[in-house]
Design a protein that fits this description.
The chain is α+β, with helices and mostly antiparallel strands. It is built from 6 helices and 19 strands. The strands form 3 sheets. Strands 1, 2, 3, 4, 5, 8, 9, 10, 11 and 12 form a 10-stranded antiparallel beta sheet that branches. Strands 13, 14, 15, 16, 17, 18 and 19 form a 7-stranded antiparallel beta sheet that branches. It has a two-stranded antiparallel sheet with strand order 6-7.
């Protein structure tokens, strides 16, 4: 974070002008910070956006996160800084481990000059994740290659507190078989330094939960150099799932009568569990796919718990809706 702030000061001092400065960054809160309530911390500016969501004193979301830097390497007061070098190197090593045929399978036909899923609705996107995963399935790769995919992911989660880092690494590792790697640009199998070094070179990791992008762009102030943009998103816990999560991997639905319904595990492979503070009465539970089609339905559900079999569902994103005489509640979940 500090090095990215220094980079903006470097741009200010070397031809970029007053539009670049470590002073043009902002800290914001959504709701009042509390050890019992739901709230969000945001910090960011030109080349940085951190979003951390909390509920009842627990971290419930750590994304979206956007990091960029120009120039990619710079020297200030005798010290050289390369803020995103660790992340770039982890991705380079991952791509270099692919054989020529694996690189061909993973290569995208679309060229990206910026990240697709920057926070908000920038870059012409609707802030909706692509419904189809692209590239090469991590399940087809060797153990060594899979460990390099996880190492790349962990270069992002390493910024977190240790408990949150451990929890997310476990979630992302559990979903590795359903994760895909895609890229565009140039590079040679076995040669890490040949990847991610020219305009529109791009790589993506897309799993049941994790979404990471890294792209090279032509410099704005230093036009002869490239600079980097990166984005980390989470399919289930972005913005703390509207601050409704109770923990990473658990989604909570709350109505005006303070009825709480917890969904877990999320993502899930066999069964989605519902745990309630107050009983449902003759409730209807429906699961919808991304087209709005009802895939699973249960009626006349009563009591403080329910189990929804999802083992026959295809991997992907779904919405569950719970309705009884007191109201309706919905949330997203992921089938691994």
């Amino acid at each position: 974070m500090n090095e990215i702030l220094l980079a903006d000061d470097y741009l200010n001092d070397n031809g970029g002008g007053s539009g670049y400065s470590s002073g043009i960054y902002f800290i914001s809160f959504l709701n009042e910070p509390s050890s019992t309530g739901a709230w969000m911390l945001q910090f960011g500016g030109h080349h940085m956006a951190f979003t951390v969501s909390f509920n009842n004193g627990e971290v419930i979301g750590t994304t979206p996160e956007m990091l960029g830097v120009e120039p990619s390497s710079f020297t200030t007061d005798g010290t050289t800084y390369t803020p995103l070098a660790v992340r770039r190197a982890a991705l380079q090593n991952m791509l270099a481990s692919f054989s020529s045929s694996e690189l061909s399978t993973a290569q995208l036909s679309t060229t990206y000059s910026d990240c697709l899923m920057s926070p908000g609705e920038s870059n012409g996107n609707s802030n909706t994740m692509p419904s189809t995963k692209q590239g090469i399935a991590v399940s087809t790769l060797s153990e060594v290659q899979q460990s390099l995919v996880m190492a790349a992911i962990e270069s992002w989660t390493a910024d977190l507190d240790s408990d949150t880092e451990t929890a997310l690494n476990s979630i992302y590792s559990d979903g590795l078989d359903e994760t895909y790697v895609a890229w565009t640009g140039s590079g040679t199998s076995g040669s890490a330094s040949t990847f991610l070094n020219a305009h529109t070179n791009y790589v993506r990791i897309d799993g049941p939960r994790v979404w990471i992008e890294f792209v090279c762009q032509n410099g704005v102030v230093f036009s002869s150099q490239i600079h980097y943009h990166s984005v980390w998103r989470d399919h289930a816990s972005d913005y703390g799932n509207n601050l409704s999560n109770t923990a990473l991997g658990v989604t909570e639905l709350v109505d005006n009568a303070a009825k709480s319904i917890k969904l877990y595990p999320n993502p899930t492979s066999e069964t989605l569990n519902l745990q309630l503070e107050q009983s449902l009465t003759n409730a209807t539970i429906k699961v919808y796919d991304i087209t709005g089609k009802v895939i699973v339905a249960q009626t006349n559900v009563s009591g403080t718990s329910a189990n929804i079999p999802v083992n026959t569902l295809a991997s992907g994103n779904y919405v569950i809706m719970v309705s009884d005489t007191k109201g309706s509640f919905s949330a997203k979940f992921i089938k691994k």
